[in-house]
Amino acid sequence: MVVVVGGDGRVYLNGKLIHEFRQDFKSFMTTPNSKRLDVTELVKRNGRNVVTAFIDRRIVSMWKGEPSIGDHSELAIGDVWLENAPSAVSLKNAVASPSFRRKNVRLRARIQNLSGEKGKARVRFDFVRNGKTEKSFTKEIDLDGRPEQLVVFTESWKNPVLWNADTPNLYRMSVALEQNGKSLDALPEQNFGFREAWIEKGAFYLNGNKLRMRMWSSPGMQRVRFYYGTAKGAEQYVAHIREMNYDAVRYDLFGKESQIGTDSRTC
Predict the structure, then answer these.
(1) d(CA 217, CA 66)
(2) Do 246 and 212 contact (CB within 8 A), yes or no?
(3) What are the helix (H) ranges across 53-192?
(4) Which residues contact 19 (CB under 8 A, 6 or more apart)?
(5) What is the C-alpha to C-alpha distance for residues 141 and 119, in angstroms, rounded to an integer?
(6) What are the two backbone dihedrals, phi and then psi, of residue 7, each rounded to the nearest 5 degrees?
(7) Are 206 and 197 contacting, i.e. CB atoms less than 8 angstroms apart?
(8) Which of 78, 90, 70 is CA-nearest to residue 27?
(9) Which segments of the chain have a pLDDT < 50?
(10) At 62, is the secondary structure helix, strand, or coil?
(11) What pairing do the DSSP bridges indicate for beta strands 190-192 and 171-179?
(12) φ/ψ of residue 66, rounded to 5
């Protein structure tokens, strides 16, 4: 798997071009170029395999003489690795959307099937907390041979452990694709918080509790986001917001135009 964010790029395996892309969006950090590539025929079974990624740093054209603190993090290269997959059928991505009001969770998984496989299979979502699987949901499906196939289903979840800013309870979510009792693919575990936000009669609610949010796009956060990205900095910032009797804050990481004319007293 190769993960690249920002700029234009080319990816080679053992000197052979296997993927190239162009990044045309301004919000580099929010536009992923995640790509899973089947390189079975190109991998050397006995010997060293070399993955090479070339990135054209087009963002430098935005700098005025020297890099600024507001720009220099907006190009990032993530991990690059090779993995041995048991099947050509794989999970491209998956997401779980919880609903506090409906007491359920909507589950979506996108399957990549470049080899055109057909047959019975199933998708499984597991939610683990404190080392124990508290919920497991499965969906039986038919692989229809299309290159990509979307699976969507909804399951009841009546008494989840809820997430909020004061008690940020989290599950570990894992997603697997199985066939005939064998694993075809699995996505890395990720954090999952059961929460739902909505607006009702002009008020904002999170999991049934009314919140007062501070709606402010902060130019200051642009310049010092690296400090507030630390555990100590984040704790100080949240404490300051709480002193002013606010529950949350929103700031604009990218759209500098939206910061024109903002006022820190607006809420």
Answers:
(1) 25
(2) yes
(3) none
(4) 2, 10, 11, 35, 37
(5) 8
(6) 75, -170
(7) yes
(8) 70
(9) 1-6, 26-31, 60, 63, 65-76, 216-217, 219-223, 251-267
(10) helix
(11) antiparallel
(12) -155, 155
- Element of type H or E holding 90: strand 89-99
* pLDDT at site 106: 97
Residues composing the chain: 267
Question: CB burial class (10 A; 0-12, 13-18, 19+) of residue 194?
Answer: buried
For the purposes of burial, counting CB atoms within 10 Å of the CB of 164, is it exposed (0-12), middle (13-18) or buried (19 or more)? middle
At position 86, the amino acid (one-letter code) is P
**Contact yes or no for 91/186 (Cβ under 8 A):** yes
Q: What is the layout of strands, in order, in the sheet containing 89-99?
A: 89-99, 104-113, 148-156
3-class DSSP state for residue 100? Answer: coil
pLDDT at position 54 is 76
Contact between residue 55 and residue 8 where contact means Cβ atoms under 8 Å apart? yes
Measure the CA–CA gap between 147 and 114, rounded to whole angstroms: 5
Tokens representing 192 are 């999952």
How many helices and strands (H and E) does the chain possess?
2, 18
The amino acid sitting at 198 is W
pLDDT at 249 (0 to 100):
60
Task: Answer positive or negative: Cα dihedral of 201, 203, 208, 209.
Answer: negative
Neighbours of 127 (CB within 10 A): 22
Of 14, 79, 84, nearest to 47 by C-alpha is: 14
pLDDT tens profile 134-168 = 999 999 999 999 999 999 999 999 999 999 888 99
pTM: 0.64
Kindly tell me the burial class for residue 252, based on how many C-beta atoms sit within 10 Å of its own C-beta (0-12, 13-18, 19 or more).
middle
Quote the CA–CA distance of 94 and 29 in Å, as a whole number: 20
Burial zone of 225 (CB within 10 Å; 0-12 exposed, 13-18 middle, 19+ buried): middle
